[in-house]
Amino acid sequence: MYPDHAHERPAERAVTAYQPAPIPPAVVHPAPVVPVQPGHVPTVASIVLPDGRIVTGYTIDAARPEPVTTKPAVSRTAVNVALGGVGFLAVCGGLLLLTSFIAALTAFVTQLITLAAVIFGGWIAIQVLSASGHKGGTTVNIRRAVIKRNHFHG
After folding, report:
1. CB–CB of 129/137 below 8 Å?
2. 3-state SS assignment for residue 68
3. Number of C-beta neighbours around residue 86 at 10 A
4. CA–CA dist 127, 134 (Å, integer)
5. What is the SS3 assignment for 119?
6. What is the per-residue burial (b if ≥16 Cβ within 10 Å, else e) of 4-14?
7. Rounded to the nearest 10 degrees, how much is the dihedral formed by the CA atoms of 84, 90, 93, 99?
8. Which residues of the chain are modeled with pLDDT < 50?
9. H-helix or E-strand spanning residue 86
10. What is the sign of the dihedral through the CA atoms of 72, 75, 76 and 78?
11. How high is the pLDDT of residue 134?
């Protein structure tokens, strides 16, 4: 039921744990302060409040609104409708050409059939009309025959 080596303890493995080493603190030097002169001197405004206090401060430029994006002269819907119309006209033109082609092909086939009928009819007419001369074949003279007791007497 149990394997033969079940009475032995499994081999123990050595487990190594690694601890992260702390980073030594770096010496932080403050950045030198460089005096910066503004491009222009802001104006100072003073206001007198209703209770008599005076508030002095710099004026704030009014917030400028973002420029409005200009709309195209023609809307996208109009462009799509126009392109759809052009496609429809192209399809209609193609169908018109197709029907014209079919009509021309029908007329051509009709002319071929008429031509074949005329040629074949002419050939038959020549055969019939040229038979009046009768230059060959078998001539059969028919006369009254008498049949007695299943015998032919001519």
Report:
1. no
2. coil
3. 10
4. 11
5. helix
6. eeeeeeeeeee
7. -100
8. none
9. helix 76-129
10. negative
11. 56
In whole angstroms, give the CA distance from residue 113 to residue 109. Answer: 6
CA 40-45-48 angle, to 5 degrees, is 175
pLDDT at 4: 62
Residue 63 pLDDT: 76
131-138: list long-range contacts, CB under 8 Å, 24+ apart: none
Tokens, residue 38: 């503004």
What is d(CA 60, CA 43) in angstroms, rounded to the nearest whole number?
9
The structure tokens listed for 148 are 């007695």
φ, ψ of residue 65 to 5 degrees: the values are -70, 155
The residue type found at 40 is: H
The SS3 call for residue 89 is helix
